[in-house]
Design goal:
Layout (H helix, E strand, L loop, with lengths): L5 H17 L6 E6 L8 E10 L19 E9 L4 E4 L5 E2 L10 E11 L1 E4 L5 E4 L16 E3 L2 E5 L6 E9 L12 E7 L1 H7 L4 E7 L14 E5 L22 E2 L4 E2 L1 H16 L8 E6 L12 E2 L3 E2 H16 L9 E6 L1 H12 L7 E4 L22 E3 L4 E3 L1 E4 L5 E4 H11 L8 H9 L21 H11 L1 H16 L3 E6 L7 H11 L10 E5 L14 H4 L3 H4 L1 H11 L12
Helix pairs in contact: 5-9
Length: about 575
């Protein structure tokens, strides 16, 4: 047996001290109870625990994946009530700290949220437990019916036996429905297709902006503009009065602009005035509400785990709105646009229903070629989180600014999602892509594209994604069948410094489109120089302005398309008053 040198003994001692330092909170636990005054019977869902050293707002509003992340932990719970005690110890998964044992001593504001689940008996024969949207657009930290605790300030001391007590003492109240006005109407309709799939009544909604002179011109029928995007609480960007004179200016961290709240109100008022201009074409514009138990919207296509949302929107909701508000009701008179999620939806719906719509304007779309699924080639890469060589691997970035500065990795996003919900139930971005694109597993939930903890890619699932939702692949595969129906209808815009690297997939799509033949696609792909996420084709204004002009900026192109493509005998006059 060799005798250890003094140097080696010293190194072992330091290593032991480091281990003891890292394990200083090895026994820390948090016990969560439900206040009896709430009269809770039995609930199930995801218990989420947040600790924040920032007192600027409640901890539940500070959960994020980037360098400003605050510690959050999660666990699934079942059959809990006012007599239950839910204990978080060092075994529950957290982000950015994996375990409670890693929390540094100090002062924290602590809060818990119970994100409640309901049981769905699907038409596929599966039973799943998911959060029902309650009018908020699938936001776990503000969903009506969820239980929350009043934040408490605690001092984490490093005592291995420390126990923190948290009491869920509030229920998030219901959200007030927006009221109809002269200009904006709100509709909700039961979808037979979705109700059959989900095993309960399911509804689709929309906010409808009516054209000037709608009541005065009962003979007029109107084209329809469909603005796709995340869950809208009301029709946005439309205001009949000037900005509030007493409003205090607020700084926009995202855009680096002071007084952005005032700018937003001014833009909304300016749109109202354009909408009333004598030369502005008279359209109906709608923003759709189609949240699912997985996300704030369905991605507007049919999918194995979410059901037939594409058919429900196209064949149930759209005709219902056109009937209610005198839409023309023909494919040549319908147009799609949106940004980010809405950009993907606009393009996907146009591709999958080529004759039901007459053009899409897809800004900064979610990945439209899965060889660039953000920075992952899901077909040829083996791991989503790391770029690997023989002797070295590097984390893939997840978010950058226009200069390329990275503040979160792709793994960060997915680690946080796994804390917020298992089985694709986090309500976040990568989970909704799985809920939309993946086959349904034997347990009724979406099959993972990759292992959420390791990043190892399942290439069988990737192949399923390719055949059903890779828009570039589908177009290339089917161009001889759909090319003529899509000629002149595809318009795509993206900043070349998109925060989520979405421009990479647009490049690949452009390569295909520009080489189409019989017919040539005859559309448009354009890029914004150093523009970040949600650049939408405006080469004259900064993104913080152009993002508020979707409802008017594509109108000249839509009018040109209508005049060039409307069938003989189409109504081109009743709505041009």
């Amino acid at each position: 047996m060799k005798v250890l040198s003094a140097l080696m003994l010293s190194m072992l001692f330091l290593f032991s001290c480091q281990q003891n330092s890292n394990d200083i909170n090895s026994g820390l636990s948090v016990e969560i109870t439900i206040d009896e005054v709430l009269k809770i019977d039995t609930l199930k869902g995801r218990m989420i625990l947040i600790l924040s050293d920032d007192d600027s707002q409640e901890p539940r509003f500070q959960v994020r994946p980037d360098v400003k992340a605050q510690p959050v932990f999660g666990m699934d719970v079942k059959d809990i009530n006012s007599r239950s005690v839910v204990e978080f110890d060092t075994e529950q998964l957290g982000f950015p700290y994996t375990s409670l044992r890693d929390i540094p001593p100090g002062a924290y504001h602590v809060q818990a949220v119970l994100h409640t689940y309901e049981t769905f008996n699907l038409s596929t024969g599966h039973t799943v437990e998911l959060p029902m949207d309650n009018g908020e657009g699938q936001q776990w930290n503000r969903s009506p019916g969820n239980l929350i605790s009043t934040p408490v300030k605690v001092e984490i001391t490093g005592d291995p036996n420390q126990v923190i007590a948290i009491n869920l003492d509030q229920i998030i109240p219901e959200i007030e429905e927006p009221e109809d006005t002269k200009w904006i109407k709100h509709i909700q309709m039961k979808s037979d297709l979705l109700s059959e799939f989900w095993g309960r009544d399911m509804y689709l909604g929309a906010h409808v902006l009516l054209p000037k002179g709608f009541d005065e011109h009962p003979e007029a029928k109107y084209p329809l503009m469909i603005f796709h995007g995340h869950f809208p609480s009301d029709f946005g960007g439309f205001r009949t009065t000037p900005p509030d004179a007493e409003m205090e200016p607020e700084f926009s961290e995202r855009f680096g602009v002071d007084g952005y709240n005032i700018i937003q109100q001014q833009e909304a008022y300016d749109f109202y005035r354009r909408w009333n201009d004598p030369d502005f074409p008279r359209f109906i514009i709608i923003e759709i509400q189609h949240p699912t138990p997985y996300y704030d919207d369905s991605y507007a296509v049919n999918s194995a785990s979410q059901g037939p949302y594409g058919d429900a929107i196209t064949y149930e909701l759209i005709p219902y709105i056109e009937q209610q508000f005198r839409g023309i009701g023909e494919g040549w008179s319908r147009f799609l646009y949106g940004g980010s999620t809405g950009g993907w939806e606009a393009l996907a719906v146009q591709v999958m229903y080529p004759n039901e719509y007459n053009g899409c304007f897809a800004a900064c779309p979610d990945p439209i070629d899965f060889r660039s699924y953000t920075l992952v080639d899901i077909y040829n890469d083996d791991n989503a989180y790391f770029e690997s060589g023989t002797h070295k691997k590097v984390l893939r970035p997840g978010h950058r600014d226009y200069l390329g500065k990275v503040n979160a990795s792709l793994k960060d996003y997915n680690d946080l999602e796994l804390v917020l919900g298992t089985k694709s139930r986090s309500g976040q971005q990568y989970d909704i892509w799985e809920a939309t694109y993946s086959p349904q597993g034997d347990d009724g939930y979406p099959v993972r594209l990759w292992d959420k903890q390791t990043g190892t890619i399942n290439h069988e699932v990737a192949n399923y994604w390719q055949e059903n939702y890779d828009l570039r692949y589908i177009l290339e595969r089917d161009w001889d069948k759909v090319g003529e129906d899509l000629k002149g209808k595809i318009h795509i815009y993206c900043g070349d410094m998109d925060n989520y690297y979405l421009n990479n997939a647009v490049y690949l799509m452009e390569d295909f489109l520009e080489n189409t033949k019989d017919p040539y696609y005859d559309g448009e792909v354009d890029y914004g120089d150093r523009a970040e996420h949600c650049w939408n084709g405006d080469q004259e204004n900064p993104n913080h302005i152009s993002r508020m002009r979707y409802n008017s900026m594509y109108v000249p192109k839509i009018m040109k398309r209508i005049m060039a493509s409307a069938p003989q005998g189409a109504d081109l006059t009743s709505w041009r008053y």
